[in-house]
Amino acid sequence: MTKTSPSPEAIAAWARLMRVSRQLVERTEDALKAKGLPPLAWYDVLHELAEAGEGGLRPFELIDRVLLAQYGVSRLLARMEADGLVEKLPVSDDGRGQTVRITASGREMRRRIWAVYGACIADRMDGRLSAQDLKTLAGLLGRLRHPPASD
Amino acid sequence: MTKTSPSPEAIAAWARLMRVSRQLVERTEDALKAKGLPPLAWYDVLHELAEAGEGGLRPFELIDRVLLAQYGVSRLLARMEADGLVEKLPVSDDGRGQTVRITASGREMRRRIWAVYGACIADRMDGRLSAQDLKTLAGLLGRLRHPPASD
DNA sequence: TCCTTGTTGATGCAATTGCATCTATATGGA
DNA sequence: TCCATATAGATGCAATTGCATCAACAAGGA
Q1: Which domains does chain A show, CATH number per domain?
Q2: pLDDT digits over A30-58, tens only?
Q3: Which of A59, A119, A136, B96 has the fewest C-beta atoms under 10 angstroms from its C-beta?
Q4: Nearest Cα to B9, choosing from A121, A46, A13, A66?
Q5: Which residues of A touch B134 (CB under 8 A)?
Q6: pLDDT at A1 exceeding the cut of 70
Q7: Cβ-Cβ contacts under 8 Å for B91 (sequence gap 6 or more)
């Protein structure tokens, strides 16, 4: 039988986590909107595809990386393809699937989003916490992750 | 001129924060859905109204507390009123406004949600971090908040 | 009083999301 | 081969959200 009642410390940390993460996301999304740039989820996809290189990624591989549902990935990729940011290629050994690759203008868009996104992160994180505190924070958050981070 | 390029530590902490908070929310929402209970936002409203007591709250007072847009609060309250969880009362000294108060079945719903929500918090937070670590985490997160927490 | 401006809350419409399901292909066993 | 089951991705429809705007009242000055 698992413990069902959280400690006051757990409640306080949870409340802070919920509120702060939402604030940070909202402010960042607002900054992107103000520049006429697409939402954070687009950056996540562009980032993953850029990391993946020429081989690209299969849509199902994006599901866990960007924490979207399968239909979310499907529709997000459709919109991004319509905007010319990614391209879909048939995959030879699996007739069901496709490979998604970032395009040149996708890379350009990624740079433009990062100019705003990176500045938000610098402002909100570096502006408030020391490098050491940021490491401590990342370590603690890592232990909340599923599966827990080892570091 | 603000710094525009985040440190590696800031990026790592940000990435952890984004990912962990989304995971925690998603798991909690799933647990609620599995029990046929409404989303977390409903709990937030019920919680605030319960804290506010008999006097209730004006809808605009909920905006910052639950981090929803004005129209989000308006529509969420409409749904909750339709479900009998809250009631709207005209307010005497301002003909535009209304006061929202939690009902008995709202309190009951709050209890039912907390049974699941609290268990999630206990499992995810107390199950992973010590009370001391939770305090440290809350303190660090507090400094990211806007406005920064003093503790 | 009248007019202008600000505040509170609701809503029409378009975009997005969630849910369930569908098509197409793959895989493995009878 | 044939069939049952699993996997990859798309999509119809309903619910929710975002954006812009609206209506109603408030507040303050001319």
Answers
A1: 38-137 (1.10.10.10)
A2: 999 999 999 999 999 999 999 999 999 99
A3: B96
A4: A121
A5: 7, 9-10, 12-13
A6: no
A7: B58, B97, B98, B99
